[in-house]
Each structure stands twice: as structure tokens, then as C-alpha cells.
Amino acid sequence: MTKELCISPELQAMLDATPNTDGLAEQIQADVENLDSDPEFVAEFMKMQFVEDIFRAMHEQGINRNQLATKLGKSRQYVGRILNENANFTLETLAEIACALDMHVAARLYFKDEYMVIQSFPNPISLLHFPNPETLVNQGKQPNYTTEQEDVSYSAA
Amino acid sequence: MSARKNVSRKDVNLKVDMDVSLEDIICVQDVTNDRRICALKIGKKSSVLAHLKDLQASNPSEYNKILNVVRLVSKHHEIFSKHVKQGKGIYKGIYEMRSGQVRLFYFIDSSGKAIVVCTNLYWKAKSSPKEQNQAFKLCLDLRTLYNNTKKIETP
User: Fold this and answer.
1) Which of B19, B25, B80 would you mutate first to test chain A, the one with the most A CBs within 10 A?
2) Is domain B15-148 in CATH 3.30.2310.20, yes or no?
């Protein structure tokens, strides 16, 4: 629905300089679909995400760069390079930082659809209906868990 | 002093028949996102989409970098790293995504629906500090316009 709007001259100038962008979002979408197959693009996001996780952990634990450097047994400059995403990130680097921050780190490979399903559920293990061992013991039974080989329905979930 | 400086902003406001709407930046959307990333459109024009398209053609490396920051912002409600800065003073509530030489300005929709509204883009290497302030101001003006508009069409 069209509505009469009051806009400033600066906005008017911006609009005058902007071409019609109808359908541009779809074009951009088509252009960037291949980016997820570009290792450089993917690696850059992983690095960005990991550094964001470090900042978040530092914030939650109330530690600064100096304290992180002490925990890592490295120089403050090294921590600076990590946080500026200028360092060479290896699996050892990730593990060292995770251990220093008392956190878990995972480097796994997923099919794209599988990743979406995993990320959709904050706690996928809660979806598995294992019998409660305490209940079984109270009933005088031994816990008997189904294995992956016996019941494949879990993997489909 | 130019004559324009003596005229108040209210006096020079223009009235146009246009619609304010949001367009999803779908290239960064997936089900794992915490926030929805949109481009602000006035009529059939979106400054941020036009600039992104230009950037993609002129500097693909910078384009890829800023797209990754957009993805990061879509996945977290709060960013602690260097990639997002909030404006100070009157520009509080205006944020910029930072990557290389590119700054993408945005604000958060006040409806509480976790919508990030991208408004304009600024290329640091080609602009002066004055233009950087203008980019902040432009985003602020666009936020005011957005909030004043009663009927926002959401896709």
C-alpha cells in the first residue's frame, strides 16, 4: 500500500542516486549460492565464528587478553593476532584455546542437510527416548538400551 | 554560509508517495539463524542492495568478507568481536558491520522480532570522515522513517 512519507533532502538524494533494485535480492542469491563451495569463503567464516566464540567465552568468564595469554602460556601479541583473525589457525590452536577456556571444540564434517537438522535442535540427545535407568532399577529390571544396529530409526530423526 | 544552512530540516522535508518495506537478504538465511537479515526498501529502491551488487562487481573479495559478517550477525543476538560496532551519542542504536574497508549500517527492528534492518553501505577507502558521519546520519534518518511508517510490508 502506498503511503505519503516525509523524507529529508539527504534521503531524497540517496533515492535519486539509487537504481531500481526490484529482483536484485534474487540475483544476489543466485550469485552467492556457489560461495559455500569456496574453501576460502568457508574458512573465513569459520575463523570469524571461532574468534567470536572466544570473545563470548572471555566475556562470560570475565577474563581479558592478558589473562587469556597467561592461560595459554603465550604472549599478549599472539592473543592479539588470534583475536584480530591474523593468526594461522590450526587444529592445535583451536584445541589449545578451547582447553585454556575450559570449553569443548568440534571440527566435524556434515552433509549440508544433516548440519541443518543438527542445528535445528538445541539438544538432539533429548529427542532420543532412552529408558530412565533409575526407573528400571526401581522396577527390578536391568537397563537394556537399543543399539544403533538394532534400531535405525534414531538416525533418521 | 550557504542559504541552505539557515533552513531548518523540517522546512525542507519533502513529501513523496512511496512505500517502505523489507526485503530478506536470502543469501544468508537458513534455519539455524537467530535473526532475520533484511534490506530496507523505499518504493522499488534499496540503497544497500544496490551497493552490495556494485561491490560484488567491483571488489569480490570485500564483498565476500562483508557477506560473512552479515552471516555472523544473523547467527548471534550480540556480537563481541571487532566486526560490529555501535554508534555513540545520538547514533546509539545504529550499528555498523565492519569488514576490511566496507561498513554496512543497520538497526534492530523495535518490534522484538529479531529483525536486522540494513540501510546503507559505506566504503571507507573511498570516503572521508565527514562522509562516514553522513552514513551514520543516513541510517538514523532511515530508522526514523521506518519507525514512523505505520504499514511495513514484511515478506
Assistant:
1) B80
2) yes
In Å, how far are A14, A104, A145, B82 from B88, measured between CA atoms? 23, 36, 58, 16
Does A19 score more than 80 pLDDT? yes
How far apart are the C-alpha atoms of A121 and A112, rounded to whole Å? 15
Instruction: Indicate the SS3 state at residue A102.
Output: coil
Tell me the HSE value of A66 on the side-chain side, using a 13 A CA sphere.
0
Residue B43 has pLDDT above 60, yes or no: yes
Cβ distance B17 to A8 less than 8 Å, yes or no, reads: no
As for the ipTM of the complex, it is 0.79
Q: Scanning every residue of chain A, which has its alpha carbon at the shortest distance from the alpha carbon of B80?
A: A55
CA dihedral B24, B29, B31, B33 (to 10 degrees): -100
Is a pLDDT exceeding 90 seen at residue B1? no
Interchain CB distance below 8 Å, B27 and A38: no
CATH number of A36-100: 1.10.260.40
Cβ neighbours for A82, distance < 8 A, ≥ 6 positions apart: A51, A54, A89, A93, A97
Q: Using CA of residue B79, residue B81, residue B85, residue B86, what is the dihedral sign?
A: positive
Name the segment(s) of chain A with CATH classification 1.10.260.40.
36-100
Residues of chain A with Cβ-Cβ distance to B31 below 8 Å are: 116, 119-120
Is B145's CB within 8 Å of A5's CB?
yes
